Amino acid sequence: MKLSLGQKAGLLIFLVLLIDQSVKFWIKTHMVLGQEYKVMGDWFIIHFTENPGMAFGMKFGGSFGKLLLSTFRILAVGGIGWYLVHLVKTKAHMGLILSISLILAGAVGNIIDSAFYGLLFDKGLIFDPSLNDWVPYFGQAQIGGPGYAGFLKGSVVDMLYFPIVQGHYPSWFPFVGSEQFVFFRPVFNIADSSITIGVIIILLFQKKFFKHQRESVE
Known about the structure:
- By secondary structure, the protein is an alpha+beta fold.
- 50% of the residues lie in helices and 16% in strands.
- It has one domain (5-166, 188-217).
- It contains 4 helices and 8 strands; from the N terminus they run αββααββββββα.
- The longest helix is centred in the C-terminal third of the chain and has 28 residues, at 190-217.
- It starts with a helix and ends with a helix.
């Protein structure tokens, strides 16, 4: 049976979410914060960390900032979803539809963490107003119990770490002389990767994608 553009987009979104959430659930329930497994030497490591803020480990304010970011993500997903439906209806280039599907799937994947992980799991990264910082936890998290945070206040699970190049800045380098540098330092997840891949594909093939879209409208 031949799949329509909409079905292909839906299938891609489903597969990305399935893989993303399956990996996160396993990491969350089988590893402790900071634990890692070396997959390929020192340049590909599964390193369990949790991110209370934006993609690739970036942070955004405290508890209120977290709630604001989660709300923004939901609004953004609504806009991306509407655009994807529009692309399918106008029979845009399949590459553009699948790229937007990757971006949408990645955004939804991280929203699921923020929205529900605080309710599902008994342990997670939480914000301590007295310290004005996010506080880690000890031991493996389990599903059930009272939950560690409210709706939209859960932390995102990250695990992919690629410290491909490591070394030290030259001593004469301004501000960071002699300090260690790591490329690539951020720890991220499959949802982040899905968003990044979708954006890169659009940037690389934008002329082809949007030329096709203009022609279909005309």
